[in-house]
Design goal:
190 residues, mainly alpha, 69% helix, 0% strand
Length: 190
Amino acid sequence: MNHRWRTIDIVIASIIAVAFGVIFWAWGLLWNGPADAIPLPGRAILYGVWLVPAVLGALVIRKPGAAFYTLTLAALVSVALGTSWGWTLVLQGPLEAAAAELVFAVFAYKVWNLPVALAAAAAAGFAASVYDAFVWYGGTSWATLRLPYIAITVVSSVLVAGLGSILLVRALAQTGVLDRFASGRERAAV
């Protein structure tokens, strides 16, 4: 497998990242708006959306660095648009992205199936929620908020970012838009 990035890899990864950066900005409005009625740790069920670019980018591009690039750029776009979390996402986005990237690296960037996507999503969700547990919820109880928050975030990440990305790649592959990528040429295997 050729691990060199082509121009189309950079363009598509960037499109995914920018699109999700805008989605992140809107999702933040939901998190801090109507969803604020859902008390923590239960609101963490919505968290998985913020981790989709890492898994989706890696599944589409299938090159080293794709998970890291797409989620990091998406986080930076959301910062540029103005999120309530501000510059903290400049650190948190790459941290979450690195966790997902690590899972794909463990499989030598050769396995792109459901279990690996779920593991990458779980790793990103774990990194994200542990970061939150210390940065945002440091003064709260581990038993009643932080541990349940971490567990719910990981479940959300697995379902939304992991399973959701697999389903999205399958749907996109069926349209033919991914034909220039291995993910599009292996429609039945994704």
